[in-house]
């Protein structure tokens, strides 16, 4: 039995009629055409499928479609407007070599962007801890961490309100 | 950090230009194989053996199941389809589908295609395969194990060497398999229209797949087309295996007349595909009392699994590197790779060298300790110097770079300072110990021995109608930055802006066979061919346009010359062939001579902390100095070294392929643990450059070197920390604890409990999990 769900995906209202337990990952990829989000393991270990759901990073392979009904979802495609300028985190990953094969990159970018929105000046230790749910087999994480710290420096000084939200944990 | 400029005066080689292949990966636009939408494509599925070794007595379709819309292929169907059943590689022993006997768990027995994955999986549950078990062999060290390949390398007279030795020291070292664990699983899509076949997919070597499909379907070169899709990591795991998957998908496409997708999930990818060869290495080393190595007797044994695949060449590289970067006049190296009833082991970054390097570098620390010598002083005494010879008798002009790598790694890690600091730390810390360890190593660039002459790779450049240049090569971008470095090499060879050069997609319909994307050969070997082709292009264009060849090109002059060239109907493509620039001479029979065109040299210093209550090892820092000829793109080169070093750390400490009855028992990323950002320490990278005369702009191979020395350096650091000389990796907490107890030492956790403390829960530091 299929259910009709709707979500705000990258700022646009989207609908899908899917089995209620279909993975959010598959809804995004198959039904909404948002193939930027990747599957690496299908069991919540690798983080390649990370998306933002109502402002929290989730593994979309572990979220059922019915749980995402009415949610606001951001995927890698939502980090920068089509043909518009890249976001700071994307620029930094390009500049500092944060992406090699690129398959973990969408998830890394989502987790990193979320960190910077909540903690605009994270320490290296915070970056390491925050990204520890996102596996990368290429980089040894060195250039990913450099990229996040560089993006932090590239961002405009945060407004007071955002700064108050402060540290994640 | 300053922003790199892409049009820096004096060229782009040696600068951190922006990667050509990055933008699509950063915006989610890059199309990996699973992202391709193919209307009407069927889902292909592989039905696999549940037995390690058995006779197939029957394959039955459950009559109660509705088989309409389902296509099933078994080996019995292949002759009727006009197809062969041998996976083309080195030895003709592996079938696409098992015939009468299965020889390993997860061997492909049948193929199923249906409109959806669910339907195909349901059908697979109704396909009944009956087996009559045969005795399996899992122990590669068993005397019953049949050899796929043996090697013998002899230098000097090893008996004479031992006769002159004051001390002889033996050691035996064992290592487990390692899973490549690329984050993108294997996958392909195949089309077969009756007379030609097309495959797109995740792969390192399009022409390997091309050859395999030509043979499977008995087709000519132009009837088979293989194109790489954006590939999410390979590390060797997508060198030979994609030929098998491509064959499976193409067979289903031929049988159904529809495109077929085969996309492995993580579990299938881990249990069914190739891994790094497990095995053991024995060392017997003769030394003078003052620590000079006078004889080395080395015996390498690798577990090949059920089919030959690439085992012979993995073993070849393992034995050639097994004496390391050391001077010794009397060496004997025996190597053997045997057949067992596990899935075949295959290519993984380092290709045999991490195994033999682990044994040697661990053994040399044991030797130094028995001689009461400092391990660094011992290495310094024995490392090759410029112009000395390797185990195969190859004279290496730049061998002394190994000393510079050692010096730099020691200096940048503050080795001497850490030694003192750790001793002080250990004297006051009750339950943790710190230690520091070193490994020196080398890696040969390109195919072994006569391999490059056998390949005779071709690559080239082509002019576009707009007067820009496109590189033509089958060498794939799998994360290392192939498009970028090829573009840099061509831009600087011609003196053109980086933006004027790009690289064509590796598609056998359009690019020549530049050989496989393996063996640290893409920049050093193929890059040189590309540079040669670019130079030919520049010379031809200049001559045709009447320009002085000595005058550097401006963009405008180049575009004008290109337009004139094309307007006059000249061929837009300039293809060059491998020209053996280093004049390598190799005796395949005696296994002597120039094993490689060049070697890159390295030293790794590892710092660890061992918790004596839980035996968890924390890697505190890794310092890697690598002499690589020339870093074409320094940041990408660092990325290779950091990533390879991290994979080596994983193999040393946590990546444990647990085999039960020949099958990987922990085939998931939950149970097979690879390093996260928490376990990976800061990695200091020092790149040293002594240009290699025959590499493009001096470059040598770099992809595999960083994988080679990590495990022994870390294990040497553990020995330094707690005095346990581990002879087996991975050194998991369980193995370390067992060794600690076996050595007669007390479990400190008892002492702590007796003192009134509860044992601490195992630190939950490794993965911050999300719901």
Which secondary structure elements does this structure contain, and how are they paired or packed?
The complex is a heterodimer of chains A (169) and B (771).
Chain A: E1 3-9, E2 12-18, H1 24-31, E3 50-53, E4 56-59, H2 65-68, E5 72-74, H3 88-96, H4 105-118, H5 124-130, H6 142-154, H7 160-165
Parallel strand pairs in A: 1-5
Antiparallel strand pairs in A: 1-2, 3-4, 3-5
Chain B: H1 22-27, E1 42-48, E2 54-61, E3 71-74, E4 101-102, E5 108-114, H2 117-125, E6 127-133, E7 147-155, H3 158-163, E8 167-175, E9 187-192, E10 197-201, H4 206-217, E11 224-228, H5 241-256, E12 260-263, H6 266-272, E13 279-287, E14 293-305, H7 311-320, E15 331-339, H8 353-370, H9 375-382, E16 388-389, E17 395-396, H10 401-413, H11 415-428, E18 432-444, H12 451-455, E19 458-463, E20 469-472, H13 482-494, E21 501-503, H14 522-545, H15 555-567, E22 573-577, E23 586-587, E24 592-593, E25 599-611, E26 617-627, H16 634-653, E27 659-660, E28 663-664, E29 683-688, H17 705-708, H18 710-722, E30 728-729, H19 733-742, H20 748-754
Parallel strand pairs in B: 1-12, 8-30, 10-11, 14-15, 20-21, 26-29
Antiparallel strand pairs in B: 1-5, 2-4, 2-6, 3-5, 7-15, 8-13, 9-10, 9-12, 13-14, 16-17, 18-25, 19-20, 19-22, 23-24, 25-26, 27-28
Helix pairs in contact in B: 4-5, 7-8, 8-18, 13-14, 14-15, 16-18
